[in-house]
Structure prediction request, 357 residues.
Amino acid sequence: MSRVRSLDRTVLEQVVERMAGLRAVVVGDLLLDDYRFGEVDRVSPEAPVPIVRALRTHQALGGAGNVARNVACLGAHCTLHGVVGEDPEGEVLQALVEAAGIDPSGVVRSGERPTAHKLRIVARGQQMLRVDREDTTPVDEAAALSVREQACAALADSDVVLLVDYDKGLFASLEPRRLIEAARSARAGGLPVVADPKRALARFRGASLLKPNLSEALRFVKGRGEPAEARRSLCEKLRDELGGGEIVVTRGRAGMSALDRSGCFVDVPTRPLEVYDVQGAGDTSMAALALGRAAGASLQEACIVANAAAAVVVEKVGTAAVEPDELLGRLPQAIAAYERAVGQGGDRSVGPGQGES
Prediction:
């Protein structure tokens, strides 16, 4: 029976260090996260709603942009490919891309749609209101073709491709299978493609690794998520339906469930935390998972690194990224959470065709 290899903190630290030498191509839906932070001390006389007195503003990359920001913060070189509108929000987003040290040459401007924009009103540490401005219809063919061509051109100088779907119209037009096929032929042995799908998981069939969350996975294969044996069956169904790649199903505070190419299944739990803001945690775990795998980590090790990265950002407010020193500092807790679960429930790895042992 195939087994996940034993944990070694030094090995995981070396994985994080190797991330800094990688080159990544990030393709996906680009969003601008806009915040107004303020105070509430009275109710409007016009309607029974609180009045927020705005004190400061903050703008950040969202969607695939936030994944790219996390990739860059972890030290990897990153090119970003997506579509923004010919509007002020698009200009702000492009400026944020450049400020984050990300290559912006793959960001395509389109006059056919607005830049996806989320405005959040926050007071007393709580989100009071969110206002979305977006167009979720398929991106126009010319813009999608430009994104795909530029992304394909960047493959030759890359180590990993990340496809980030926020269901905002890009992948409805982009035909990600063509990108996946191009990555396979970009070098001997193929270039790994890690996909974070939203609803249309089948679009990403053939990717090296797919990372849906539990609700997305269950909606696709109509399986069950509990107990562990059912989760293994769920991951196997996803693998079979989506071309045989590795599967990682994220389960929020419960951590991740993963199935590698050998058929070995493992639950990778996370440590309970005081959560300030879950926004962007999935983006951070996506970046760390993809870079970890590309840096030579086993799937189990990459999941532990991704859990550690996500644990850093959920303790921050707003869209956030993780730095290498923060990730290294959180690794011991992520390892301990896994080892504690193993100690309480036995070896959580399950080989092909086997029950839990």
